[in-house]
Each structure stands twice: as C-alpha cells, then as structure tokens.
Amino acid sequence: MLQTLMEYGSRLDSEPGFKTREVRWLVKLDQNGELLGVLPLGDGKRGQMLPRCPNMHNMNAGGRAHFLVDSAQFVTLLFKKDEKPKAISDSEMRHAYFAGLLRSATAEIPLLIGLADAMEDGQKTQTIREALAKMKAKPADYIEWQIGEFRPRTDDKVQAWWRAWRENDKNRKVQTTKSAPAGKPSKKSKSGTSMLCFLTGSPETPLPRHPPITGLPGGNGKINSFGDPLVSFDKAAFCSYGLKASANAAMESVAVQKYVDGLNDLIRNHSRKLANALVVHWFKDSVPADDDPYAWLEGTVSEEQAQATAQARARELLDAIHSGVRADLGQNHYYAMTLSGASGRVMVRDWMEGAFEDLVRHVGAWFADFSIVARDGAGHAREPKFMAVGGALVPVLKDLPAPTVATLWQAAVRGLPIPQPLLAQALARFRTDLVDKETPPFNHARMGLIKAYFVRKGDRTVKPYLNPDHPDPAYHCGRLLAVFANLQRAALGDVGAGVVQRYYAAASQTPGLILGRLAANARNHLGKLEGGLAFWFEGKIADVMSRLGDRAPCILDLEGQGLFALGYYQQLADLRQSSKDDGKDLPDTPDSTTGDNQ
Fold first, then answer.
1. How many of the other CB atoms lie within 10 Å of CB of 421?
2. How far apart are alpha carbons 57 and 78 in whole angstroms?
3. How, if at all, do strands 35-40 and 70-71 pair?
4. If we measure between CA atoms, which residue out of 204, 188, 215, 314 comes closest to residue 249?
5. Which contacts qualify for 216-223: CB closer than 8 Å, 24 or more apart?
6. Which secondary structure element, helix H or strand E, spans residue 355, and what is its range?
C-alpha cells in the first residue's frame, strides 16, 4: 500500500522540506517593501495549489513558522474578531520567527531584503494586513509574495538556501539530542542509525516522525486542519528494540515525503466522502475522466458521456480493451482505500486493488444488477448514483452509517453480493413509505437494491421488468396485492387508508392469511365496475392466481418478503403501462406517486 502511494507521489513535485499548499493570496511589493497590491489566487472557492512551498519541520517546538509561505495570521497578524490573547501572543512569536528567517536569507539572497524589511516594519505590515482584510482574507489563508518581478518561491537560489538551512537545523537538533545534560550519561539515538528502508530496501537513516496527512474527517465528521500521521508508534508494545515514533517502521525521508504528498494529493483531488469516511482512488496509469468507472459510480461525467448509460460505456470499454483498441487500459490497475482520522492518527479502513478491466466489469455489473423498470412502466429507471443507493436505506442521508457505505462500496468495486441486513433495511424503508402517504414510496435506487440482492445471489429469474413466469409464489403474492390495490382504486376512488396501507405489512409476511380475505372482497369491487373494465381486472386476477399453484404460502421469510416487494412493484408498473396499451383509463394509486431520492 505504501509502495503504491510512493509511486503515485513520484508523479508529483515532491521533496522533503517542501509541500504543495493551497495559497489564496499573492501580495506584491516593490524593492523597498512597499505594498503594490493584493491578488486573489484560485477560483474564488478554493485557492491555487502551489508546489515548492517551504515546509518547516518540528512545528510543535513552539514559536516556529514556515519559511516564505505561511498564513495571514502569522505573517501579517491578521486575526478574527475576539481572538484569544494566548493565540495573539503565539502568533506574534511566530511572526517574529518568520521575519527572522527572511532576514537570515537576505545574506545570500539580497532580493529578499524588501520583504524582510516589510515584516520588521510594523507600519508596512499593518498596510498589508488592512489590504488583506479589505479583500476579506481569512487568518488561515496562505500568502505568497512577489517582489517586483521576483517570485521567491520558485527561485532556485531561495530553494537551495532553504535546503541548507533545514539540514543545518536538523543537525543542530540531533547534536542537542546526543549531548547529555550535566551529570547524566550520554544516550545513543537509535533513530539516527542506518536501517533498511521499508519502501526502498536500501540502508538509510529512518525519519523519526512522518509529516501529517491532512483533509481527513474525524469521528465527529469535522476536518482536522493540523492532520494526522499515517505511520507512528506511541505504545510500549509497538516500540521494539527501543525504537520510538516512526523509526519502528524505518523509512527514509525522500520516500516518506513521496507517499505523504501522494496521499495528500489524492485526498484533495481524487476522493469521495462517504458518511464519516473518505475513499481515495486512482490508477497506475492515468485514465481519461470519461473512461473512469469511479466517475460512473459517482455520476460525475461529462454531459456527452451522461447521454449513455454506465452499462453501455462499460461494454464499449471492455470491447475496446479486448480488441486491442485500448490496450493501454488492459495493462492498467486500480487502487482504492478508505480512510478516516481518529485520535491523532490515520485509520485505514479498507484497501482494494486489481486490474482495471475487472473494475470496469464490476461497475458495469453494478448498474446492470440495479436496473429496474420505472415506476410508470415506461422503460428503465435512470441509473442511480452510488450515494442514492445508500440514501435509499435511511430517512436522511446524514444518518447513513459509515460501515454501510463501506459495504456498498466494496460490493460495487469488487462485485460482491449485497448482504442480507441491507435487504432488511431496504424492505423496512419500503414498508414505511407505503404506509405514509405523504412520502413517495417508489424510490428506484431502493427497488434496484432489492433486485440486485437476488441477482447477486445467482437468481436469474429476477428481471428488471415483470416476470409472469417467476417460479416463486412469494413474487406472485406481491403481484396479486398490486392488482387488488388497483381494483379497489378503480371501484371506490380515494378511500383514505386503502388495501395497501391496511394490509401490505401483514400480506408480505403471512400472505396465506390475508390474500384470501382480499380475494373475497375483490368480488364486491368488480361488481361496481363497468363490464369491460371488470372483465379486464378479472383476467388479471385469474392470470396471477394461476401462478400461485395450490395455495399462497402461509409465512414468508426475509427473502420471500423481498420477492413479494418486487412482484408488487413490477406488477404496478406493468398495470400502468398495459392500461395505456389496452386503452383502459385506470386511476393512479397512491402507491405509484412520483418522486425519487436519486
């Protein structure tokens, strides 16, 4: 996993001591440090991601600041209203450190003198601060500088100075660690010895602490702005041979920086928030956006591609791979990992990898298995987005548990079966919505999930449309209830709580006890209809009853209830469509109202 992340990070401009940051403002100064103007960076919603921003190590030492590119709060002392005195004092200390670093660099880079002067001149700093406040900058926004035509962040001499300063500072820290206090014996730093790097296999000095991974939601759903390490050890049981922090998984600094930069880039640019977790996904070799199966799942495709179904795109792509037209994709691989932040560390909840061809096949199968007739019987329902499937299981999407989302994600990407507890959730939501007239019950994603459960079990008798030849009587019991519901509506109109509201729950569990009573009552309803319509309904009832055999089942288990729901839904859709084809003007039942949550 780390090796793959390091390979991804190798595509980026990655080096220890530098970081790609979201920078929102470019402050322009003249050679004397006088303000020329402030320009916003980015698109207004997000800043511009700029590589080669110097990244200070050991920021927890107190009073430190990043060299050259840091936040408006530390650089210009821009505070939010009613900022706490301690935060102000800490920021003033960091501002002094920032200015001191710049002054140190001016000995070798005279072009930085104007910026150093501005940071040490309270009036000039205030002018910059007021200009940023007028532009509605926030204290946490990062700032880049331009001095005349000189942009120091990209200058080779500036970067070389920062490398040398950083290395000297780290060496000073090592010497301090090795030096024993007066009266105490010296202790050798084991983390400074040469060890085999887990990532490269070469003997290297392990990095004692790895840079943080940022942008992950924690257990409370909020983003930790400081980030968390992916590799760390803080318990005695994990610190073999006295190795602490990250040295117990020895990795050298360049390899570490690559995997950290790679994962941070994936979180920002190739991730999807699923409940309180985050899924990042990528490919060994880059894939065009329109050929990305992850985008099909999420529904983030171009307008042109959106005209074709994901199933059709998957078939076309697989044909192109097999014929050699897209041989590049045939050798490609996909990767996906589910992450969250918890208690100061990164939690890896799932890891998936495999051939790109398998991913295309699994995602195409996901949409094929979820294919279901539309509620009005006019063709297939629109393919649901991935989160619409999860949302079909709960009243409100924010209530969807992270483990449920992870299970669905694995089913989609790996082609796994739908677990039975999710079928139970879908049926519970289906029954609840049927009883509540105010809620449109026929959510296409929910009905597709019920169907997909059986298809992924290997039941090929379940079709997107009505299957009159289905072998299971539970399916036909659901069909019969749908016909009775439409018959009552045609005979009596809106009677408030009708057949479905009163009997669906009982009929779906004990059809043998309920359907006989409803069949007797149906004769009264037929007597209220005109001859042609009554004859039409009699034919429908007779056709369904002929499929039941000797009798309706007395009790249905969970899977039987799932087939009952499918039969009920598909029969209603068929009745709506066939009534139009036969010229019968059947009234809408309250069970077929429009509305969907996809």
1. 12
2. 23
3. unpaired
4. 204
5. 216/267, 216/278, 216/339, 216/340, 216/341, 216/346, 217/273, 217/276, 217/277, 217/278, 217/340, 217/341, 218/276, 218/340, 218/341, 218/342, 219/276, 219/340, 219/341, 219/342, 221/276
6. strand 345-355
- Beta strand pairing status for 271-274 and 203-204? unpaired
Give whole-number Cα distances, 221 to 276, 338, 396, in Å: 5, 15, 16
DSSP state, residue 340: E
Tell me which residue of 110, 112, 19, 128 sits closest to 74, measured CA to CA. Answer: 128
502: its two tokens: 């009163």
| Tens digits of residue pLDDT in 436-492 | 765 556 899 999 999 999 999 999 999 999 999 999 999 999 999 999 988 888 888
DSSP, collapsed to helix, strand or coil, labels residue 73 as helix
Q: Cβ distance 333 to 354 under 8 Å?
A: yes
Question: What is the C-alpha to C-alpha distance for residues 171 and 248, in angstroms, rounded to an integer?
Answer: 21
DSSP state of 378: S
Write the pLDDT tens digit of every residue in 242-295: 777 667 788 988 999 999 999 999 998 888 887 777 889 999 988 888 888 988
What is the rounded distance in angstroms from the CA atom of residue 570 to the CA atom of residue 567?
5
Q: For the stretch 5-23, what's the b/e string if a residue is b when 16 or more beta carbons lie within 10 angstroms of its beta carbon?
A: bbebbeeeebbbbbbbbbb
Dist. CA 504–CA 542, nearest whole Å = 20
| Helix intervals (H) in 194-331 | 253-269, 293-298, 303-306, 310-323, 327-330
pTM, two decimals, is 0.79
CB 239 within 8 A of CB 190: no
Question: How far is residue 385's CA from residue 185's CA, in Å, rounded to a whole number?
Answer: 64
Q: What is the three-class DSSP state of 339?
A: strand
Helices 402-414 and 356-370: crossing angle in degrees, nearest 10, is 110
How many residues would you count in the chain?
Answer: 598
Which one, of 269, 221, 598, lies nearest residue 447 by Cα? 598
Burial class (CB in 10 A: 0-12, 13-18, 19+), 57: middle
Q: Which residues contact 14 (CB under 8 A, 6 or more apart)?
A: 257, 258, 261, 262
For 172, the enclosing helix (H) or strand (E) is helix 156-178
Q: How many CB atoms lie within 10 A of CB 503?
A: 19
